[in-house]
Amino acid sequence: MTARSRAIEQLRAVGKRVTPERELLLRILASNPHLDAMEIHRIAREEQPRMSLATVYRTLGLFEELGVVRACGLGEAHAHYEVRHDDHLHLICTECGRIIDLPSPAPLREIAESEGFQIERIRIELIGLCSACAKKRGAKSGKDG
To answer: With a threshold of 0.70, does the pTM exceed it?
Structure first.
């Protein structure tokens, strides 16, 4: 079952209708993780030109409240959204903004649980340079010297 279809089931389970707007936003989120509300709104308006930014924010709030999506800061002042799926880590490039998802290491969960800690979710962000930006920066610094 896909993250999108799980999200639709979650909405229906709590008696929420799956409107065309909600369906569209889920589709956008499922195929474009880590977008902020403005980017989601821009993409949504390509298909539904009358969709308002307020509708996007209201729907994202509902999705977050129901646990359908997760908001992440990703090193910025505003939130980026993704459909909830297994816990994972984010590698965030400070140069180009690229975000790479990695599975959470099992030992983290095992250590916490061995201490009797009940984990709700794991959220780790590693901030640095992706390989492409590190190469570019290395090439630039090599030219300067």
So the answer is: no
